[in-house]
Amino acid sequence: MIPITKPFLPPIEEFKLLIEGIWKRQWLTNMGPLASDLEMRLKDYLAVKHLVFVANGTVALQMAIKALELNGEIITTPFSFVATTSSIVWEGCTPVFVDIDANSLNIDPNRIEEAITEKTTAILATHVYGNPCDVERIDKIAKKYNLKVIYDGAHAFGVKVKGKSIFEYGDITTCSLHATKLYHSIEGGLVTTGNAELLKKIAIMRNFGISGYDSFAELGINAKNSEFHAAMGLVNLKYIEAIGEKRKELTEYYDDRLRSIRGLKPIWHKDANLNYAYYPILLENEELLLRIKKELDLNEIFTRRYFYPSLASSLPYLDKRKFEIADDAARRVLCLPLYFDLTREEVDLITRIMLRAQNN
Ligand SMILES: *Cc1c(COP(=O)(O)O)cnc(C)c1O
């Protein structure tokens, strides 16, 4: 059996060492020393000004919307994980979808302006598969119409554009540190912003809105994360270079093996580095995808159709809408297994089955 992903697990001794410290201190959660240490190290590693470690990537998005005091309509992408859209609805705002760019699979900046109404307050875009959105164009549009910008950077850990962290673009960027992501703390998330005041507000929000021993400053929620999760994050951070190297090597091996596949990979932002978070391939048509997927399934090799069906066509709490490019991409995209423990032999097997299915 080959799963779509396996979480990276560090040597257990290193994790145990940190857990023993937790036992000694008996400080389990609520902004403990490991959580603070992780925040400092991540800020350093990612080269961002301000960052908070939170419970998950979904509550990070919800707090971003809340902290910016958004209401009305938020322009967003139909091609993302459901949390991008559900957070908008959860915060009482209306998602307004615009279609994606066929090359990058990110929100198409050319279609944003026509979707802006007097109710529009923000743009919430996802860096799909870690591939940066056209941040400069989006920034220009946002400035012109006085809109806030939130990026869902759940896939974009470690990505830079022109040498600057992708998390530094927009008013707020969120990230997920869920076990299935490139870098994880079992469950976890990040909120980053260049605005110190906004960060302070989010840090208070994360802890019920408590601002002092006997005072409240904000409407808050419980979005804290525990020392145990921080411990996993700290140990995994030591391996982030090794994880990246291995994923790069496997990605290049896939590329080589799949040279004759009838499909394409999304076109990456020209000024950005790759983080190898996923291996997506846009097959020539859905029929080919289903044929390949069926053959892989029969061999217990599990792929994922990220993101099928498109959000605009499937969420029961929204009116259904069709989008030419997003729906087409959703039907044709397949993510292949990619994780630290995957071997070249397994990639050989996967790609051999794929090519056989294609050529039969
Ligand atoms: C994983 C993911 C999220 C949600 O993160 P959690 O930590 O699982 O809550 C949000 N957006 C995108 C694009 C994701 O892939």
UniProtKB/TrEMBL annotation:
Keywords assigned: Pyridoxal phosphate
Gene3D superfamilies: Type I PLP-dependent aspartate aminotransferase-like (Major domain) (3.40.640.10)
Presence of the UniProt keyword Iron in the record: no
Residues modified as N6-(pyridoxal phosphate)lysine: 181
Family of this protein: Belongs to the DegT/DnrJ/EryC1 family.
InterPro entries reported for this sequence: DegT/StrS_aminotransferase, PyrdxlP-dep_Trfase, PyrdxlP-dep_Trfase_major
CDD domains named in the record: AHBA_syn
Protein name in the entry: dTDP-4-amino-4,6-dideoxygalactose transaminase
Active site residues per record: 181 (proton acceptor)
PANTHER family the record matches: PROTEIN RV3402C, TRANSAMINASE
Keyword Endoplasmic reticulum included in the entry's annotation: no
Annotated GO MF terms: pyridoxal phosphate binding; transaminase activity
Gene Ontology terms: biological process: polysaccharide biosynthetic process
